[in-house]
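Page 47, continued from p. 46.
Same chain as before, 281 aa.
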Amino acid sequence: MRLNLTTRLLKPTTRTQTQTPRPFRTYTSSSFQPQPRVNMSAPGIPSTTTPLQSQSQAGNQPQTHIPVSEQNQTQTSRMSTSTATTPGTGTGTGGFGVGNGSGKGSANDPATYGITSTDLKTAPGVELSPRQRVLVGSVLDLFKGLPTHKKMSLWTETATFSDPLTNSRGRKQYEAQWWGLKAAFSEIEQQHHLITSSSDPITLDLKTRYKVKGIGSEKVIVSVVRIFTEKGGEEGGEKIVGVEDRWYGRIPEGWLATALRNLNSVVVPAFVSVPKNDGEN
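Result:
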């Protein structure tokens, strides 16, 4: 009896457990609320992260359209702002051009007066202003026998010209001397020049070879030229009021020499014809 009970207690019992399936839970639209996500796509392009319903709702919202003309104006204003330049003194775009804008050229440009003597030699420490370079270049051209009315416009009406042969005063007399130089010599060679002073008067050393027309004789003259100027001329620039051509550094001052020089200044205009314009010979 005891053995039987023990065997029954030790005998394993097998129980069959049947798992009952759990019922399916139904979710409604009210219970399921997806978390909002950040839309990183560009406007007008569907996003891969935002629900289609929210995108369609956003697409149905009215959009503000900018007219094409206003867009062009906005782009133009941006371009003009980015490319704006500060006015300067140069010759490029946005700067102030060379000259006075009247088409007459600059008063400090040798080309305005047809000056050919532009390679000016100066002593050490001597500097010329642009206007002084124009005046000196024009005088060197006159000593080469190259007078023009444009160059003579750099002289005042009452200017003077003096050398050992003449003492000319006023435009009629000094213009005749310069055109007479051209008529009297067949060859004029400027062998040397050196500007030694830029103060008033401007001083330069000059060496010139002259060949007399018709005779053929030659003469080399070394002289010191002094150019006197005054301010208040054309466009506020300087003008020539006097030129002295001192042969070998001097001009005769005796009464006879002075009388002959004065006579020359009167006689030469009577025989030398000054052209009315630069187009005449």
